[in-house]
Amino acid sequence: MPRLQRADRVFAIVAIVLGLLYAVATPPMRAPDERHHVRRLVQIASGGIAGQVPIPGGVHDFARAGKISSRNLRRQPTLPFSRDDWRALAAIELEAERPVAFAGDRSLAYSPLPYLPAVATTVVGLRQGARPLVLLYAARATLLVAGVLCLVWALRLAGDAQWLLCGIALLPTVTFLRSCVSADTLTTAFAFVLFAAILRLRDHDGARDGPAWSDLLLLSAAGVSVALAKVAYVPLTLAAAPAVFGRLRGRRHGRAGAVAVVVLPWVVGAAWLALLGEDFATGDLHRASPDTQLALLVQHPATFVQAFAQTWLSPDGIGSLTRSLVGRFLLLNLRLPWPLVLACLALLGFLVLTLPATIAPRPAERALFLLGALGCIVLMSVGAYLKWTSVGNDSIQGIQGRYLVPCLPFVLYALTPPRRWRRAVSPRVVAAVLLVVAVTSNLWALVAIVRATWAA
């Protein structure tokens, strides 16, 4: 137990400190899709889950003021943000008496669940007439705290895999996004809780005593939360199948119960898509043509396969996705240097090699953990191919490495080497190595963000 307590305390302290620094250093709406997420928050707080709903005119103006249009944005080393920019955003009032019809945008596909903590503060802010800039920073702080607390819970549940989860959760990209207004914060946290719940259930695999049904309830809740946060991650629930069936083997109606636990998130995810209906297409890029792309996918699937391979398997694609997974900031234009990227990857390898002997996935578990992650990649690729990709493009547009973060624990667990290749390492050494790499890479990112924005 001391090891477990030390891991969650280390994470909580470092994550909160770095998170607050990122929240202050990152200018308003200089994070991926932050202006879209702010409007989605206000839409939900105004009573609109899907469909058109009036939002305060000041929020609409605030989102428009934060828009940056540039075809070569990712090639720009800086995104200057001056005091005048700050004053202009701070001067925008809520103007609740001037409602503007809002039907949603690209963030509409997210259900209210990953926004709930920030929705609560947004409701209070709207009632108090708070300015949009205040709503943004309140949402950042609320999501940061909620994300950290949820991940601390995942660490407590994960047992001997705690340090691995801690290392992933402190990667620069993950830490940066946790400090912004984004659905990624709790989506990632839900996926980590799902992973930890599977390991917890696995620890009781085959036992006749213990909190079986509470474990199953936790697993079901985590799976449903992942489905509602982002439907593309539903395949991760496949990883639960071996533990669930092993836990219920021999119980009356056990097989039917196991099927229900595994299938429930898929049903909930499908129900959410059905609720959205035609609104799911809201926010499609002008360059995209979902109907044309769907016809191309059905009639010429080889075209999609080629684009998939170019995106995920080509050297350029692998390099870009790896860098984006570990360290890309602001509007994805600022990159962590390769030496620090490699150091973070080496940290993850070190954490896998120092996993205790109790972590020994069976062949079926390895297969289903990898299958779940691959299913997520295929689903998000199909979605991006239909909604974001220009017709006939040779790669899938809109795919980013950060989308792989929820899958990372499942992949690394599945790739855990045999026990004879691993080495027992003191938790103090593990914590020291983790802190050196995580703090160094995140501090570099913080300095780079300030230099690329406030000091530019």
Break the fold down into its secondary structure elements and pairings.
Blueprint: H1 2-25, H2 34-45, E1 53-56, H3 57-65, H4 83-90, E2 99-102, H5 116-128, H6 132-158, H7 162-169, H8 172-177, H9 184-203, H10 212-229, H11 241-248, H12 254-276, H13 290-299, H14 301-312, H15 315-326, E3 328-329, E4 334-335, H16 338-353, H17 363-387, H18 408-414, H19 427-452
Antiparallel strand pairs: 1-2, 3-4
Question: Mean pLDDT, nearest integer?
Answer: 89
- The topology string of helices and strands comes to HHEHHEHHHHHHHHHHHEEHHHH
Count of individual beta strands: 4
Terminal Cα span: 47 Å
Strand proportion, as a percent range, falls in under 5%
> Which outline best applies?
globular
- Put simply, the count of helices is 19
Helix content: 55-70%
Adjacency order of strands in the biggest sheet = 1-2
Our count of domains comes out at 1
> Which class of secondary structure composition applies to the elements?
mainly alpha
Q: How large, in whole angstroms, is the Cα Rg?
A: 22 Å
Task: Give the uncertain stretches in residue-range form.
Answer: 1-5, 206-211
Oligomer: single chain
